[in-house]
Design brief:
This protein is about 45% helix and about 15% strand. The protein is α/β, with parallel strands linked by helices and about 325 residues long.
């Protein structure tokens, strides 16, 4: 779900967009994309159904644990108004990220999506991607950050990696999905992690200005329209202290991996990523500079992923 195509393949993009403009074909593509992910998960030894069932029940039964309802109530910000872009279907879920189903499948989906980043890495590819991200941070940021904001933190997979890398830092995870944050809270208990979880938009966090040394945004920008992406950059700049850093990991529009993608696979993936074209059309390096940062460094952390790190001016 974090893979795209070389933007120079205009004819392919036009063909795929035409197919997806047909509603029956669009829904068929979404269903097929989901089946493909489950099949890939099985190929690396991930039992999608069993792992989700364990999370749903917290005990390994078939029942939905009532504790999840309590978790949701504790984290949810009822007055929050969701931006229109967030109310579209995402990742083959009709309700997008605003559902238990989406939240409880994040981890298994990550294993499946990243399974082929490296030969024979399998289930560990997702963890390796985050380890490479941390390595890029430590290579380009000399002083360990004391306060970190993880924007679009999802269920906390990258948040926990950041805390492990910087155990002294105060960590804040921000996400628009209270369902994702409920899972994150539960995982934090398992990890014995002390994280401040905030139910808010990455472009409007409500957090104090100049209160963080590092703002991290991991695999979020390809899920945003350009207007929201630019707003996130400006919010990150507001949150950072002088000399603080912004770090973004996402798919690399210039990776040769994308140019080799068959149109059929592209169609399946684009059916789950409504803002992919906008992301690939965005000059992210220039947008970062225009938001008040120095020119970012760019590091390849997997064949199709890159990390951009920029210091606040």
């Amino acid at each position: 779900m974090t893979t795209a195509v070389n933007p120079s393949s205009r004819l392919t993009i036009q063909l795929v967009n035409w197919v997806l403009s047909n509603k029956p074909l669009f829904h068929l593509a979404k269903q097929q994309a989901r089946r493909m992910m489950k099949k890939r998960a099985a190929s690396i030894g991930v039992d999608w159904t069993q792992e989700v069932a364990l999370l749903r029940s917290r005990e390994g039964t078939d029942e939905f644990s009532p504790e999840w309802t309590a978790e949701l109530a504790q984290i949810q910000n009822p007055p929050l108004t969701y931006p229109d872009y967030y109310l579209r279907p995402f990742h083959a879920y009709e309700q997008g990220n605003l559902s238990w189903e989406a939240a409880m499948e994040v981890e298994v989906a990550a294993y499946a999506v990243h399974a082929r980043l490296w030969p024979d890495a399998g289930r560990e590819s997702s963890s390796r991607l985050r380890q490479n991200y941390i390595a890029a941070l430590k290579s380009h940021i000399s002083s360990a950050p004391q306060a970190i904001a993880d924007l679009g933190c999802s269920v906390g997979m990258t948040t926990f990696a950041l805390q492990q890398a910087y155990p002294i830092a105060e960590i804040t995870g921000v996400d628009l999905s209270p369902y994702f944050l409920a899972i994150a809270r539960y995982r934090a208990q398992q990890h014995q992690a002390n994280v401040n979880w905030i139910h808010a938009a990455a472009e409007s966090t409500g957090l104090p200005s100049a209160s963080f040394d590092l703002v991290s945004v991991f695999l979020v920008f390809h899920e945003l329209p350009q207007s929201a992406a630019i707003a996130v950059l400006h919010e990150a700049r507001r949150l950072l202290r002088p000399e603080g850093h912004l770090a973004i990991t996402d798919v690399n529009p210039h990776s040769p991996t994308h140019a080799k993608m068959p149109p059929y696979v592209l169609t399946l993936l684009k059916s789950t990523e409504p803002y992919m074209d906008e992301y690939f059309a965005l000059d992210l390096e220039n947008a970062i500079a225009e938001a008040g940062f120095e020119c970012p460094t760019v590091t390849s952390i997997s064949p199709p992923h890159r990390t951009l790190i920029a210091k606040a001016q």
